[in-house]
């Protein structure tokens, strides 16, 4: 009852505020227009009640591990609940926000645009951004009303972190650097969410049986590619243009990236990269940053830069679009693998991480790891060695430990007890019938039987057909095809 009374009280306050805009205009003439238009209204009734219901349901759920974003927890009720998103949020939702931001940039005195933008943010449950937008318009009075309402109704709202909105509001008022930083971060977050929604929508359309949907998917991927390119995200642009079947454009960008990796000056970055091996990060061109790895481990080949390139070439042959461009280059006389770094998804809307149930990327990853005998991706630490990029799509990294001699000896086809596979964790054959599999991956595995693809595959491995790595890969590939 207290929540209902509070919601009714807030609605009444807002209606009163909107109705008395002419009175407020006399005390704040610069912002009077923001509520003057007939379409100017904030739908508190829907937004506040929906958010209140969301918080109540969320708080009623039991606590869960902090690692809830991992696939192992995908079926927990709290994760399923966090996957919920506002009904207004679609692929075009963020485009509308960009449109309003551009309108404000061109017409900073168009106060109606601020209200429309604030409205959009509230509909998407972006409370802090809505308040910030009203502050930009000079309407601290309404920003305060929203703060009071949402702080009361949403003490622990998932994803918005608005439990201290009063402190946030005060900081906006007095701290110029905080305002500038929040504005940049907020817009970057919205941009990433926009790309992610497009990625998800395009993937759904691409997997549809409808020809119209597939055409729409290609257009959406092309739109993504252009947007990524505008922001110098070359690898993401390459993958998007491929998905749009614009292979000419993708190949042009691919050749440019390869040329940069092979010949541009290596400028050491101060970016820190964790992990077992000591890796360096270099800037080679605007938007192109690479991670460099060299051989490690005495005689054991524990980390082999050539394996990084092998994994990349196999993924390209299978059209996975999951491993970024990788080459071998000498640095100070020593071979290093250089791999393009992917922009990770940060500050994403909470529902983007939980598209696991209908996603094929995890199964594709497991199949790929099975083929290259990669046990480093999953161990007692759980799944790792991935980068979650736009659309909650996985990019695969760290392939310096694949086709290890110990495992090759245990898996040569003609050895006894071969089917007693020690790679149980990564072996997808025990679960693939219960998980979604990308039909294009199945076709790619089958197409490796074509003469031209067999030649390309043998060329990847030193020793060609006689390479034990090649023999192991082929044995596992045929086992997979039979199982699928």
* Rg over CA atoms: 26 Å
Q: Based on helices, strands and strand pairing, what is the structural class? A: alpha+beta
Output mean pLDDT: 74
Question: In sequence order, what are the helices and strands, one letter per element?
Answer: HHHHHHHHHHHHHEEEHEEHEEEEHHHH
What's the helical proportion of residues?
Answer: 40-55%
Task: Give a short account of the largest sheet.
Answer: 5 strands, antiparallel
Strand content: 5-15%
As laid out across the biggest beta sheet, the strand order is 1-2-3-5-4
Rough outline: globular
Count up the helices: 19
Q: Segments where pLDDT lies below 50 for 5+ residues? A: 1-41, 66-71, 155-159, 406-426
Number of strands: 9
- The rounded distance between the terminal residues' Cα atoms is 56 Å
Description of the molecule:
The structure is a single chain. The protein has 484 residues and is of the alpha+beta class. It contains 19 helices and nine strands. Helix 1 packs antiparallel against helix 8 and helix 7 packs parallel to helix 9. The chain starts with a helix and ends with a helix. The chain is 53% helix and 8% strand. The N terminus is likely disordered.
What are its keywords?
about 475 residues, alpha+beta, two-stranded antiparallel ribbon, 19 helices, globular, disordered N terminus
Secondary-structure blueprint:
Layout (H helix, E strand, L loop, with lengths): L1 H18 L1 H7 L16 H17 L16 H6 L8 H16 L4 H13 L3 H10 L3 H14 L11 H10 L1 H31 L4 H20 L3 H10 L3 H17 L3 E2 L11 E6 L2 E7 L10 H13 L8 E6 L2 E7 L20 H11 L6 E2 L2 E2 L2 E4 L3 E4 L8 H7 L27 H9 L3 H10 L7 H16 L1
Antiparallel strand pairs: 1-2, 2-3, 3-5, 4-5, 6-7, 8-9
Helix pairs in contact: 1-3, 1-8, 5-6, 5-10, 6-7, 7-8, 7-9, 10-11, 11-12, 12-13, 14-18
């Amino acid at each position: 009852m207290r929540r209902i009374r509070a919601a009714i009280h807030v609605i009444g306050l807002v209606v009163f505020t909107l109705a008395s805009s002419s009175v407020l205009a006399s005390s704040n003439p610069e912002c009077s227009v923001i509520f003057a238009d007939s379409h100017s209204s904030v739908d508190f009734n829907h937004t506040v009640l929906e958010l209140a219901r969301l918080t109540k349901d969320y708080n009623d759920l039991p606590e869960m591990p902090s690692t809830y974003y991992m696939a192992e927890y995908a079926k927990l009720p709290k994760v399923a609940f966090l996957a919920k998103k506002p009904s207004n949020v679609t692929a075009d939702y963020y485009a509308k926000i960009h449109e309003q931001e551009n309108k404000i940039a061109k017409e900073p005195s168009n106060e109606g645009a601020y209200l429309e933008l604030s409205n959009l943010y509230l509909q998407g449950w972006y409370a802090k951004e809505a308040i910030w937008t009203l502050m930009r318009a000079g309407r601290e009075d309404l920003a305060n009303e929203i703060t009071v309402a949402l702080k009361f109704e949403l003490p622990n709202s998932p994803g918005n972190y608005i439990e201290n909105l009063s402190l946030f509001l005060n900081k906006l008022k007095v701290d110029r650097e905080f305002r500038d930083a929040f504005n940049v971060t907020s817009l970057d977050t919205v941009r990433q969410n926009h790309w992610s929604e497009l990625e998800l929508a395009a993937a759904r359309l691409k997997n549809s049986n409808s020809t119209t949907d597939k055409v729409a998917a290609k257009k959406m991927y092309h739109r993504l590619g252009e947007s990524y390119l505008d922001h110098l995200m070359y690898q993401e642009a390459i993958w998007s243009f491929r998905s749009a079947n614009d292979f000419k454009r993708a190949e042009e960008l691919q050749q440019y990236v390869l040329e940069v990796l092979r010949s541009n000056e290596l400028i050491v970055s101060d970016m820190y990269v964790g992990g077992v091996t000591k890796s360096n990060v270099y800037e080679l061109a605007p938007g192109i940053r690479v991670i460099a790895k060299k051989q490690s481990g005495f005689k054991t080949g524990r980390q082999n830069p050539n394996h990084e390139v092998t994994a990349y070439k196999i993924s390209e042959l299978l059209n996975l679009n999951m491993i970024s461009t990788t080459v071998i280059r000498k640095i100070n006389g020593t071979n290093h693998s250089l791999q393009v770094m992917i922009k990770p998804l940060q500050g994403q809307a909470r529902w983007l991480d939980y598209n696991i149930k209908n996603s094929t990327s995890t199964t594709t990853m497991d199949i790929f790891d099975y083929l290259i005998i990669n046990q480093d991706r999953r161990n007692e630490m759980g799944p790792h060695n991935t980068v979650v990029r736009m659309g909650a799509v996985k990019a695969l990294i760290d392939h310096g430990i694949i086709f290890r001699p110990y495992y090759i000896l245990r898996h040569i086809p003609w050895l006894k007890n071969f089917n007693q596979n020690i790679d149980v964790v990564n072996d997808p054959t025990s679960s693939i019938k219960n998980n979604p599999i990308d039909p294009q991956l199945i076709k790619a595995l089958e197409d490796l039987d074509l003469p031209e693809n067999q030649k390309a595959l043998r060329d990847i491995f030193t020793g060609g057909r006689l390479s034990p790595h090649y023999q192991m890969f082929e044995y596992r590939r045929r086992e997979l095809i039979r199982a699928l």
